[in-house]
């Protein structure tokens, strides 16, 4: 029986309780292994991690980056071989500058900016499961880092030569890679989320354009303060650079010489992820724009992706980008963001398709998209083709798809595309579940076996289990005033959408979110990411250069070390299918 386990449903494990411990817990009968924590050399024999944060920028560029996020396992060989060997590709969303440097985040210097850039981006490592039962990083010509400084190309309607993209430096790097995607042709998609945070200026004459305001670009930036030490990130000195961010970036993990390519036809927003499926040979890619009041997008490729590739074209360069309108009667429509269509005309102030894409959010405003409570990950049910999206939390907007106002706990929305065709332009939607604690909100039907809030990561496995990961912010964690005092550390749950059953599968260490999940083809190894353990929390305080362990010391628990983001390998002690 595929999946095994309980004959009634897909879930066969005993749920774990909530936790506030500095620990990673899994159900009885499961075992874990910490793999590739921040600073691990991507090739055996590479520069070793120094526990005082003193690795140089050059060393960091040959090591695993910080703050692991979206991830995909690309098997090498057939199902059997590929369940023991493959390329693990993962995002490093951002850096915690209080833990990255020996002296913390106070002074910003050009050297520190270079190291911070090297700790961002994507890691590709080759791993194998050996006779000892553990997974190991092996030497591989495919191992590489793509960082904030790696040369990149642009493709699609917005070319690198576009006047808005002109800058003092060549096109470089990818930043704030949150969730991810992967294509049927074997490439990885990194997504640029809160890129506005890296830019700022001390020039008093600089003021943001309307478009920059819409994306949250500001003189003060998001606290990284790189613009104080590197003119590349100064909005006044190098104004085109900021327009090179906000895109989906395609990386070929099997060709270490292939330049990453920014696929501009998929729009410029704060892309949480990019979930690719197919409809009669056409590529369909869903992407959430994670901001309170922003939108859900879908790209539908023109024609068969196989034909496009045979013609030497990227299936992600030619297609239509849509934004979603969720109507209160449970129906919905995909609205095209096409120059010359609807409000997006030359007379309406839109120069061409490149202009529409550079200002995707404003184009979506103009066509009447529906504001959402922070749309994050999107996943497609492999059995029904229904689409699920986490709305992590938010203010609650004036429509039925935002049923709570405010919405501190978040919910998951689900839709069926017309005729089960993911390329369709209309759909029917419903609320799959409301997260939260029934002690504070009697609409919530969760109980102690599955209480959670702020769903973020979301992924179906091939059996149809829906894995849900949480990102309760550290300013809410354990607070009764926010209704989070019974929920504990961030966690991961599994749901069976057919029965509606949900069970808590694991809990993470203090200060961390759980983000990123992928499986071997036999579904007997799961890889999960623990991001930002030790980040400042309300409950446990703030890490300092004197005590970087103030919140967490996971996973090393070295009395002189510091917390590190890491991938955790989860297996069953009996070698069975995870979750069943
Ligand atoms: Fe990077 Fe929206 O989480
Ligand atoms: Ca995150
Ligand atoms: Ca996320
Ligand atoms: Ca999040």
TrEMBL record:
SUPFAM superfamilies xref list: NHL repeat (SSF101898)
Entries under InterPro entries matching the protein: PhoX, TAT_signal
Protein name: PhoX family phosphatase
Upper classification of the organism: Bacteria, Bacillati, Actinomycetota, Actinomycetes, Kitasatosporales
Top-level division of the source organism's lineage: Bacteria
Family annotation (Pfam families): PhoX
Region of interest (Disordered), ranges: 147-168
């Amino acid at each position: 029986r595929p999946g095994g386990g309980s004959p009634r449903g897909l879930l066969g494990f005993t749920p774990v309780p909530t936790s506030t411990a500095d620990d990673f817990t899994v159900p009885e009968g499961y075992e874990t292994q910490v793999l590739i924590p921040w600073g691990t050399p991507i090739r055996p024999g590479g520069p070793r991690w120094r526990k005082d944060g003193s690795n140089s920028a050059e060393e960091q560029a040959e090591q695993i980056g910080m703050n692991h996020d979206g991830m995909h396992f690309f098997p090498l060989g057939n199902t059997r071989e590929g369940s023991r060997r493959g390329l693990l590709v993962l995002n490093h969303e951002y850096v915690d500058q209080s833990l990255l440097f020996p002296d913390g985040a106070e002074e910003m210097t050009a050297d520190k900016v270079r190291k911070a850039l090297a700790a961002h981006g994507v890691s590709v490592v080759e791993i194998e499961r050996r006779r000892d039962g553990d997974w190991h990083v092996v030497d591989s010509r495919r191992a590489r880092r793509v960082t904030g400084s790696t040369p990149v190309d642009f493709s699609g309607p917005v070319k690198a030569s576009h006047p808005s993209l002109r800058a003092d430096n060549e096109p470089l790097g990818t930043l704030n890679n949150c969730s991810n995607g992967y294509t049927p042709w074997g490439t990885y998609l990194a997504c640029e989320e809160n890129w506005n945070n890296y830019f700022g200026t001390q020039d008093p004459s600089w003021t943001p354009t309307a478009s920059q305001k819409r994306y949250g670009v500001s003189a003060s930036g998001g606290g990284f303060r790189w613009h104080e030490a590197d003119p590349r990130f100064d909005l006044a000195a190098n104004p085109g650079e900021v327009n090179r961010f906000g895109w989906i970036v395609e990386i070929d993990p099997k060709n270490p010489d292939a330049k990453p390519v920014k696929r501009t036809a998929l729009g410029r927003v704060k892309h949480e992820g990019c979930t690719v499926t197919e409809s009669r040979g056409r590529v369909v890619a869903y992407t959430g724009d994670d901001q309170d009041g922003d939108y859900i997008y879908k790209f539908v490729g023109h024609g068969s992706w196989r034909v496009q590739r045979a013609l030497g074209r990227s299936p992600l360069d030619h297609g239509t980008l849509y934004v979603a309108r969720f109507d209160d009667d449970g129906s919905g429509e995909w609205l095209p963001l096409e120059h010359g269509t609807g409000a997006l005309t030359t007379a309406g102030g839109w120069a061409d398709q490149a202009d529409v894409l550079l200002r995707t959010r404003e184009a979506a405003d103009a066509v009447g998209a529906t504001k959402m409570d922070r749309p994050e990950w999107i996943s497609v049910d492999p059995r029904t083709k229904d689409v699920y999206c986490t709305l992590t939390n938010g203010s609650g907007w004036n429509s039925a798809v935002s049923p709570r106002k405010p919405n501190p706990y978040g919910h998951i929305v689900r839709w069926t595309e017309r005729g089960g065709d993911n390329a369709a332009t209309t759909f029917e939607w419903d609320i799959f579940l409301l997260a939260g604690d029934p002690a504070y909100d009697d609409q919530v039907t969760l109980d102690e076996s599955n209480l959670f809030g702020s769903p973020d990561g979301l992924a179906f496995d091939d059996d149809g289990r829906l894995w849900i990961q949480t990102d309760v912010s550290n300013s809410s964690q354990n607070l009764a005033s926010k209704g989070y005092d019974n929920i504990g550390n961030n966690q991961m749950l599994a749901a069976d959408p057919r029965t509606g059953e949900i069970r808590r599968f694991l809990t993470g260490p203090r200060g961390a979110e759980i983000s990123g999940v992928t499986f071997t083809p036999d579904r007997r190894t799961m890889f999960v990411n623990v991001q930002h353990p030790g980040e400042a929390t309300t409950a446990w305080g703030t890490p300092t250069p004197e005590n970087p362990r103030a919140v967490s010391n996971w996973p090393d628990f070295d009395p002189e070390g510091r917390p590190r983001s890491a991938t955790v390998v989860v297996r069953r002690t009996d070698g069975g299918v995870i979750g069943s």
